[in-house]
Design a protein that fits this description.
Layout: E1 11-16, E2 22-26, E3 32-36, H1 40-45, E4 54-59, H2 63-71, E5 78-81, H3 85-104, H4 118-141, E6 142-151, H5 158-165, E7 170-174, H6 182-185, H7 190-201, E8 205-208, H8 211-225, E9 234-237, H9 244-250, H10 254-267, E10 272-279, H11 286-299, E11 307-314, H12 321-341, E12 349-352, H13 357-366, E13 369-372, H14 382-389, E14 395-399, H15 405-408, E15 413-415, H16 420-432, H17 435-449, H18 454-466
Parallel strand pairs: 1-4, 1-6, 4-5, 6-7, 7-8, 8-9, 10-11, 10-13, 11-12, 13-14, 14-15
Antiparallel strand pairs: 2-3
Helix pairs in contact: 3-4, 4-5, 5-7, 7-8, 10-13, 11-12, 11-16, 14-17
The structure holds 6-O-phosphono-alpha-D-glucopyranose.
Length: 468
């Protein structure tokens, strides 16, 4: 692992995460294009701002980022670590996004089974090196007694490692994912399960998005490490909400209006719209969502020609074969539905795969129904953003396995994500909901969704650390 570039900063507030706020794409003409990082974690952390005494330590993720480092291009307040690409790939793709992501989202199912062999052990060593590199960089750049907020499953070992290097620091760890039930977590080899838990408990505060994930974690810690594991430890719950001010302003810019015009043309006059926006991710359950929509068209023919499903499924983690296969399956099922039911003037599923934030916001504003049906999800910010942005009210079909369920269940139509028939019924009820009821529910959803905006979410954690 190469050393981070020397920087004089000794920061008072540090954030550490695999993905940073900006990543760079390298164009064919050699130009670097800066893009905002995707996913809920980056959205929440943007509240750090770019104060003179704060530093966000993240990893260079691809050729564009590495080229930016070579050219000395960067953002103020952001330190990108230049990891050996093999170490990064093993830590990020093979351990974090395969094993740990799959454990916490319960994605292992025959024939997709966990494999803990010699290759796994080699990759685990890379994961350790990766975590050590972050711990060293944080230790080098933190002022005396600084607060360090470490993010997510990529960096589960960092709190423990950093505590050894710098006992003076206040360390928090935040998991943006669910936490697995103890029996499932214990699929992991015993020594690794222990190491992960001890790593996280190296933090002064180990935090989660909901009480449910926090309880699962404490249960694991007690089962794996014993009754005393939690003595003197603080487990926090901070439910991240949507940023109403930002979303309202951003969704009323001209580029969003342009996208709305284009989408309206694709939808056609007088039709209802079911919207989903996700990274193409197994846990998001996109295929079952499409199958539920197909069942709706099949069993309730009155909706044919009268509804369009806008499915935005943005490529994610394409280095991994299971993600590539899942992406292909999403496309295949969408095509099948269009072949089976489509007519000259009606395309039942409009699938967009090119990530375009303005177009996502345009769809949020137009949606009559939002479909958010993950198998499991730490929070799911889309469920919270749509009610805030919606122009005329939007009925929310929501999985009971999303963290957002705890805050939004009262005004959503909730589903078991595995139940395709139940989801098809919920889509029908959502599409049939009277306009005034939809609007009232949307207003209440928006209020619940914005209860803890990102700035507050971030400051609460910081204050809690400093109060120790
Ligand atoms: C989830 C994780 C984040 C991650 C995001 C996008 O929200 O909790 O840590 O950044 O997905 O995934 P990616 O692998 O592209 O960073």
């Amino acid at each position: 692992v190469s050393e981070p570039p020397a920087t004089p900063v000794r920061a008072q507030i540090l954030v550490a995460s695999n993905r940073g706020p900006i990543s760079y794409a390298l164009g064919e003409d050699g130009a670097l294009d800066a893009r905002r990082g995707g996913g809920g974690m980056v959205s929440g952390l943007s509240a750090i701002g770019s104060g003179a005494d704060s530093l966000w330590v993240c990893s260079a993720l691809g050729d564009g980022d590495r080229e930016a480092l070579r050219r000395g291009v960067g953002e103020p307040g952001v330190l990108m670590l230049d990891m050996d690409p093999d170490i990064h790939s093993a830590a990020y793709n093979d351990i974090a996004n395969s094993v740990l992501w799959f454990i916490h989202h319960l994605l292992y199912q025959t024939p997709l089974e966990p494999v803990f062999d010699a290759d796994f052990r080699r990759r685990w060593s890379a994961y350790e090196s990766y975590n050590r590199a972050f711990a060293r960089a944080l230790a080098d750049h933190a002022a005396d007694g600084a607060a360090v907020l470490v993010q997510d499953y990529h960096l589960a070992l960092v709190p423990g490692l950093l505590r050894e290097l710098r006992p003076d620091l206040r360390i928090g760890h935040f998991s943006h994912t669910p936490w697995a039930p103890a029996d499932y977590f214990r699929l992991l080899p015993d020594d690794i399960a222990e190491q992960l838990l001890r790593g996280l408990l190296g933090a002064d505060r180990t935090c989660f998005l909901t009480r449910r994930w926090a309880d699962a974690f404490t249960d694991c810690a007690v089962r794996v490490l014993g009754e005393d594991a939690l003595t003197g430890r603080r487990i926090g719950v901070h439910g991240l909400g949507a940023d109403a001010g930002f979303l309202k302003e951003r969704s009323h810019r001209p580029d969003v209006a342009e996208r709305m015009t284009a989408l309206r043309e694709q939808i056609g006059p007088g039709r209802r719209t079911v919207v989903r926006v996700d990274r193409t991710e197994l846990s998001k359950n996109i295929v079952r969502g499409l199958l539920a929509y197909r069942q709706l068209l099949d069993t309730r023919p009155e909706w044919r020609e009268r509804v369009v499903h806008l499915a935005f499924a943005y490529p994610s983690r394409q280095d991994l074969a299971v993600y590539r296969e899942y992406t292909a399956e999403v496309r295949r099922v969408a095509d099948e539905i269009n072949e089976e039911y489509g007519t000259d003037g009606w395309t039942p599923v409009v699938l967009h795969v090119k990530d375009d934030f303005a177009r996502s916001l345009a769809a949020y504003r137009l949606a009559d129904v939002a479909l958010v049906n993950p198998i499991r999800d730490g929070m799911n910010l889309v469920a919270k953003e749509i009610p805030v942005v919606s122009d005329e009210g939007c009925a929310l079909v929501l999985s009971r396995e999303a963290g957002a369920y705890e805050e939004l269940a009262a005004d959503a139509l909730t589903v078991n994500p595995y139940d395709i028939t139940g989801t098809a019924d919920a889509l029908h009820r959502a599409l049939s909901m009277p306009a005034d009821e939809r609007l009232r529910r949307t207003e209440r959803l928006a209020a619940a969704a914005t209860a803890l905006p990102p700035q507050r979410w971030f400051l609460d954690q910081l204050e809690a650390l400093r109060a120790l």
